Backbone:
């Protein structure tokens, strides 16, 4: 017998193309959802890691508070979403002025070194950086900083009214709430620290 040499029919060709299209669509959807999930996980990990790092750094800096090089009191300003204080940082030989403040959803940090020339903390020498973005403290109506008097405890005492009188402060708390970027869920990451001031 002779083999059938008719070739591929139009129906066989259409069935093959349809099956290929369905399989291609399934593969594309799988990789798309995997990429979306990977982006979400990455954003959550970043929010957890960087939020924890910022809070830990702030805690260490506040713990090392000291008088300024000119003899000023260690705390300059203590408000809901801003704090200015003097501290010793390992990368500077003199005491520096550090400022943390929340502007909308961005937490900024500035460092002003002591100027031997002007014997002051010259704003012209200030180094400002973005500490972290996607902070939702203002939207959540939660202050970034709370201040407590000496011998008071965060769980049993009421916070001082802000802006607080610097000489009344003995304990500082920081509550940083982050909404990870590129996520559709309402998951917030809250990082909290308490530090007793050595004043």
Residues:
């Amino acid at each position: 017998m002779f083999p059938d040499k008719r070739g591929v029919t139009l129906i066989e060709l259409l069935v093959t193309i349809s099956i290929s299209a369905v399989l291609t669509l399934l593969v594309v959807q799988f990789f798309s959802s995997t990429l979306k999930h990977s982006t979400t996980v990455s954003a959550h990990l970043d929010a957890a890691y960087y939020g924890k790092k910022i809070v830990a750094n702030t805690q260490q800096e506040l713990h090392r508070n000291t008088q300024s090089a000119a003899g000023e009191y260690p705390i300059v300003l203590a408000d809901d979403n801003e704090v200015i204080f003097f501290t010793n940082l390992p990368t500077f030989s003199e005491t520096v002025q550090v400022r943390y403040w929340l502007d909308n959803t961005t937490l900024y940090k500035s460092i002003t070194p002591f100027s031997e020339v002007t014997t002051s903390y010259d704003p012209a020498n200030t180094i400002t950086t973005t500490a972290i973005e996607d902070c939702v403290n203002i939207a959540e109506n939660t202050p970034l900083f709370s201040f407590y008097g000496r011998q008071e405890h965060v769980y049993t005492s009421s916070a001082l009214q802000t802006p607080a009188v610097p000489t009344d402060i003995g304990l500082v708390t920081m509550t940083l709430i982050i909404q990870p970027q590129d996520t559709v869920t309402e998951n917030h990451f809250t990082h909290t620290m308490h530090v007793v001031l050595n004043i």
About this structure: The radius of gyration is 28 Å. The chain has one domain: 37-196.
